[in-house]
Amino acid sequence: MYDYLIVGSGIFGATFANKVKKAGKTALIIEKRNHIGGNIYTEQIEGINVHKYGAHIFHTSNKKVWDYVNEFAEFNRYTNSPIANFKGKIYNMPFNMNTFYQMWGTVTPGEASAKIKEQVEQYGVENPKNVEEQALSLVGKDIYETLVKGYTEKQWGRPATELPPEIIKRLPLRMTYDNNYFNDTYQGIPIGGYTNLIKNMIQGIEVRLGTDYLSNKEYFDSLANKVLYTGPVDRYFDYIFGELEYRSLKFETEVLDTSNYQGNAVVNYTDAITPYTRIIEHKHFEGADTSKTVITKEYPAQWKKGDEAFYPLNDEKNMAVYKKYKEKADLEGKILFGGRLGTYEYLDMHKVIEKALDLADEELS
Ligand SMILES: Cc1cc2nc3c(=O)[nH]c(=O)nc-3n(C[C@H](O)[C@H](O)[C@H](O)COP(=O)(O)OP(=O)(O)OC[C@H]3O[C@@H](n4cnc5c(N)ncnc54)[C@H](O)[C@@H]3O)c2cc1C
Q1: Cα torsion at 239, 240, 244, 248 (round to 10°)?
Q2: Which domain holds residue 202?
Q3: Smallest Cα–Cα separation from 49: which of 177, 258, 189?
Q4: Atom of ligand 1 nearest to the CA of 41
Q5: What is the pLDDT of residue 315?
C-alpha cells in the first residue's frame, strides 16, 4: 500500500512525487509510455540530447520555481533567440530592431516606429474579425505577410481569414536590438537533458513503465490511499461528455553528417509552401561538440483520438465540454487531477511546476 499512486511521469507527476517523498510518504509512479519525462523527454542520439516531443526551453521569473529545478540539474545559460527563414531570407525574432532593420533598413527606434505606424494606418482595420485583420491592425502588412501569415496558417491548418482574431491577442514589438525571445529573469537548459532532470527528481521512487492506469484502474486504485492523475481528463471519464480536441504535431528526425546544419537551435519557416513550421537543431541547446548533428522538422497536424495530444483547443465549444469534466473531477474524492492533460490547459514547464508545488503544499501540509 502506497500513500500516493502517481499516474504519469511528466514534470507535473515528477514534481508531486518528489514532494511526497520529501514529506516522508510513499509513492508509486506508473507511466503509459516506455520512458519517463512525459513531453519533456530527451533521448541521446550521437551524443546529443534530442528533445523528442518538440524544443523545450526552461524560462521563469518565479525564483521559487527556479531554485527548485536547480536542485536537480545544473542549467546552462541558453537564451532562446529563434530566427525566421522566409523564402531564404533570415529575420530575427521576436520582432525587434534587428527585424525592422532586416525588413526596412530602419536604424533608430523613431524610424522603425514611424514605419510601423504608416503600415498599420495603411492596412490596419478597426474591428478585426479574423487573424489577418487582427495582425494587420497590430503590425501592418510587411511583418504580417513575411513572418505571421504562412506560419499561423500552417499551425492551425486554416486560412488566416478563417481564424478567430483571439488567436493572436498581441504581437509584441520590441524597440531595442534584443533577440532574447523570453522576458523572464531566469532561462536555460538542464545540462545533460530533461530526462536526467526528471530522473533526479524521482530518485528512490518506484516507477512502472509501459503501464496504463486505465487498463486496470480498480487494481491500481487499491494500491494507494490517493491518486494523482496527469493523463487526459476526458479519457479518465471514458469520454462521457465527448472528446476534448487538440492540435497535434508530427516530428521527422534525421542524423546529418555535418557538425553544424543551421547555426541556431530553432529556425522557423514562415512561408506557406514549406510544409513544416520549424527545424530544431538539438546540439545548439547544450553546445554539444560532435562531428554529426541531429535535426527535427516539426509539422503541425490534425489531431484525432489516439494521436499524441499537444495543444489543447481552448475555444468555447471545448471549454464547455471541459467544464462538465471538471465538475465531475471535483467530485472524485480520492483522485487529484493535474498537469496539461488533466486540466486541459496549455502550460509552460514553470507553470506546471508551480501548480504541482501548490497542490503538494495543499495535500501534504
Ligand atoms: C511542442 C511543444 C513545445 C513546448 N515547449 C516548451 C518550452 O519551450 N518551454 C516550456 O516551459 N514549456 C514548453 N512546452 C510545454 C511543456 O511540454 C509542458 O509544460 C509539460 O510537458 C507538461 O507536463 P505534464 O506533466 O503536465 O504533462 P506530460 O508531459 O504530458 O505528462 C503526462 C504523462 O502522463 C502519462 N499518462 C497519460 N495517461 C496515462 C495513463 N492512463 N496511465 C499512465 N500514464 C499516463 C503520459 O504518457 C505522460 O508521460 C511545450 C509544449 C509543446 C507541445
Answers
A1: 20
A2: 2-78+185-245+312-364
A3: 189
A4: 29
A5: 87
Angle separating helix axes 11-22 and 194-201, nearest 10 degrees? 30
Last residue of a domain, one of 137, 167, 197: 167
Pick the residue whose CA is nearest to atom 26 on ligand 1.
Answer: 339
Q: Is 146 in the pocket of ligand 1 (CB under 6 A)?
A: no
pLDDT tens digits along 303-331: 998 888 999 988 899 999 999 999 999 99
Predicted confidence at residue 169, as pLDDT, reads: 85
User: pTM of the entire structure?
Assistant: 0.96
Q: Are residues 224 and 107 in the same domain?
A: no
Q: How many domains does the chain have?
A: 2
- Check whether residue 194 and residue 163 sit in a common domain: no
Task: For residue 264, report the distance from its CA to the centre of ligand 1, in Å.
Answer: 24
Helix axis angle for 131-139 and 149-156, nearest 10°, is: 150
Distance (angstroms) between ligand 1 centre and the Cα of 340 equals 6
Q: Residue 152: CB within 6 Å of ligand 1?
A: no
33 lines ligand 1 (CB under 6 A): yes
Q: Between the CA of residue 112 and those of 42, 126, 137, 175, 302, what are the distances in Å?
A: 40, 22, 16, 8, 38
C-beta of 56 in contact with ligand 1 (< 6 A)? yes
Q: How far does the centroid of ligand 1 lie from the alpha carbon of residue 11, in Å?
A: 7
Q: How many alpha carbons fall within 13 Å on the CB side of residue 75? A: 19
Interval 81-111: pLDDT, tens? 999 999 999 999 999 999 999 999 999 999 9
Whether residues 59 and 22 fall in one domain:
yes
Distance from residue 201's CA to the centre of ligand 1 (Å): 16
Catalytic annotation, residues: 170, 174, 247, 278, 298, 346, 348
Instruction: Supply the pLDDT for residue 73.
Output: 98
Angle of helix 109-123 versus helix 131-139 axis, rounded to 10: 140
Question: 40: Cβ below 6 Å to ligand 1?
Answer: yes
